[in-house]
Design brief:
- It is a single chain.
- The protein is an alpha+beta fold.
- The chain has 2 domains: about 35 residues; about 100 residues, Immunoglobulin-like (Sandwich), CATH 2.60.40.10.
- The chain is built from 2 helices and 8 strands.
- It has a 4-stranded antiparallel beta sheet, with no helix packed on it.
- It is flat.
- The protein starts with a helix and ends in a 5-residue tail after the last strand.
Length: about 150
């Protein structure tokens, strides 16, 4: 009987610690932050795709995707992620006021990426409907030796 009481107490402690851990993770989760943000707004995407054409292996491609807050509340971009570690996005740190234009800067490192490039940028925000996926595409050619 004592053995079952100890096991039950241990499981209770283990489960209660795990619940607290999940709550703290959930607060830092960008998708949860999107739900927490009340006051949704609307957004107009000015640039949803960019074709950089042909670049040589090793070149860095930089592009700023533009969007406009067309709603009546500030637009808050909570997270920006990409489909590949070779592409690094930068989100606006400050809310975009109604009527203002914002930018999502993306840098693509083409080193060792010879061939067709097709990268997807995913944006989480308080916009309704949600941001569409942003596309970065082009072709990386072999570097010509001098």
């Amino acid at each position: 009987m004592f053995k079952y009481t100890i096991i039950s107490a241990f499981l209770l402690i283990l489960v209660s610690c795990n619940i607290r851990n999940k709550k703290s993770i959930a607060k830092n989760d960008p998708l949860t932050q999107q739900i927490i943000i009340k006051d949704p707004t609307t957004v107009q995407i000015i640039d949803s795709s960019y074709n950089f054409g042909k670049v040589a292996d090793g070149e860095i491609v930089t592009y700023n995707y533009r969007f406009k807050n067309t709603g009546s509340n500030p637009l808050i971009v909570t997270n920006v992620s990409t489909s590949c570690g070779c592409t690094i996005p930068e989100k606006p740190e400050q809310p975009i006021k109604p009527g203002e234009t914002g930018f999502i800067k993306v840098k693509f490192n083409s080193e060792h990426r010879v061939g067709n490039a097709h990268k997807i940028v995913t944006v989480s925000s308080n916009a309704e409907p949600a941001f569409p996926e942003l596309l970065l595409m082009g072709e990386v050619t072999e570097k010509k030796e001098k």
